[in-house]
Write a structure and sequence with these properties.
Blueprint (H helix, E strand, L loop, with lengths): L1 H20 L2 H4 E4 L7 E7 L12 H14 L8 E5 L3 H17 L5 E7 L2 E3 L6 E3 L13 E2 H9 L6 E6 L31 E5 L9 E2 L4 E2 H12 L6 H20 L6 E4 L18 E4 L1 H6 L3 H4 L24 H16 L3 H13 L3 H11 L9 H13 L3 H11 L4 H13 L3 H9 L2
């Protein structure tokens, strides 16, 4: 009886803490009756990096911005591509999708591009690069240069392209620290010029950092972007949006971080009307509550996951479990279904697909289940469950899973963490090698 009461109390406490942690812009969403069906949106939210530190709250940034596009701006859901943790090829593919759509509409459609994630500098050329989740900050060629990114957008046959970049390109990370390759020195990068139909909003200038807003669980820039869209019912002019972002972001950053963060704007000199442009012509008049509905929709079994006590965990690495076999093409279909669902933040669908693949013995599916349960944006977030899945995949030989298993043991059982880092390092995993050098 006491155990059941404890579980019930934990469920209530989890719900209360989850609710209190959510931002006001996440919970009160403008709902527009306008249908903005000639606007197409590409949202890239890169949070979980394979070779670099993660970007706090990038998933939440992308998810909520895409909701505002749909609800506040009246853009049909099928017009919005939301990609979480995009690889280099996925970023290129999605830019190609947007270009094809613009071409099909023969200049009548508009595009909105939003990016939350790491930017990085090329130290030799001072060019700015977008860093996909499989990229290396030490190798600019593993990213997308801002020159090619802007050129791709400029070549699109569109009415207008509005870009929002919650990233900095100086070598600083969102947590205020620097990439290793930048040697602790912020680099002043050169952003390319924009075409006449492009307007680009960036989170910071020159050598500044694009900080998080921890209390609101967003990037600082994104939070105030959403706040202005919320208060204006989505219909703020770009001029009003620019003025608001510069004022509020800088004020908050100076107050909390004791450092300046000043959003910047890039627009062609010939574009004399940009300040009057709106993302949607008429403002939303109604608002809907999002949090209560989201919390209520969490399946009960996700909130009552039983954690295995740490002391019951094996103190050494055991042998891998025996995998079952099934049609490889079927397993691959499950994996693709899981990836697609996870990119769109449809966690339940992703879990179902990955669990089917995992039951067939797929180590990649077990690894991806670990990624989901270690994702703090997932309402069933559970480090113990994540560690169990990572360890299962690691025992089957998954190198990234070895590293993640080590990370989840780090600080509680460094001896086991070291074993996993050693296994990953032997397979060439650079971050595992870095961790080994830090363990006493």
């Amino acid at each position: 009886m006491m155990k059941r009461k404890f579980i019930l109390y934990s469920m209530v406490l989890f719900t209360a803490l989850f609710a209190s942690a959510q931002s006001d812009v996440d919970t009160r969403i403008p709902v527009n009756t306008e249908r903005n069906d000639k606007t197409f949106v590409l949202v890239i939210a890169n949070e979980n990096y394979k070779h670099e530190q993660n970007v706090p709250y990038a998933h939440n940034d992308g998810e909520v911005f895409s909701i505002y596009c749909e609800k506040a701006m009246g853009i049909p859901k099928e017009n919005i591509h939301l990609i979480a943790d995009a690889t280099l090829n996925e970023m290129r593919y999605e830019l190609d999708w947007l270009a094809k759509v613009m071409k099909a509409y023969e200049g009548e459609a508009s595009a909105i591009v939003y990016y939350s994630g790491h930017g990085m500098p090329d130290e030799s050329s001072k060019d700015a690069y977008f860093l996909p989740v499989d990229g290396y900050s030490s190798n600019p060629q593993s990213g997308i240069s801002s020159k090619s990114f802007y050129a791709k957008l400029a070549q699109m046959h569109s009415a207008k392209v509005v870009v929002f970049l919650d990233a900095c390109f100086s070598g600083a990370r969102r947590d205020g620290n620097m990439f290793a390759q930048s040697r602790g020195v912020a680099i002043k990068t050169t952003m390319p010029t924009v075409s006449r139909n492009m307007i680009v909003f960036s989170a910071s200038q020159e050598k500044e950092t694009a900080y998080p807003y921890k209390e609101k669980q967003h990037g600082l820039f994104t939070y105030y972007l959403l706040e202005k869209l919320q208060s204006s019912g989505g219909a703020a002019t770009l001029g009003e949006l620019s003025d608001y972002l510069k004022r509020e972001v800088n004020r908050r950053s100076i107050t909390v971080n004791q450092k300046s963060q000043t959003p910047s704007l890039q627009v062609d000199e010939a574009n004399t009307v940009w300040r009057e442009i709106r993302l949607v012509e008429k403002a939303a008049k109604k608002y809907e509550k999002r949090l209560a509905k989201a919390v209520e929709s969490v399946p009960m079994q996700q909130q009552t996951k039983v954690e295995v006590p740490v002391q019951n965990q094996p103190s050494t690495v055991s042998e891998p479990p025996i995998a079952t076999t099934t049609d490889p093409s079927l397993v691959q279909n499950y994996l693709e279904e899981g990836r697609s669902a996870y990119r769109s933040f449809r966690y339940d669908k992703a879990l179902q697909a990955y669990q089917k693949a995992a039951q067939a013995g797929s180590m990649e599916a077990k690894f991806q289940l670990g990624i989901i349960y270690s994702d703090q944006n997932f309402q069933g977030y559970n480090k113990q469950t994540a560690r169990n899945y990572f360890q299962q995949a690691a025992l089957l030989g998954h190198t990234d899973a070895m590293y993640h298993t080590g990370m989840l043991y780090l600080g509680t059982n460094n001896a086991i963490a070291k074993q996993w880092f050693q296994k990953a390092a032997m397979k060439g995993h650079q971050r595992a090698r870095a961790q080994l050098s830090r363990i006493k």
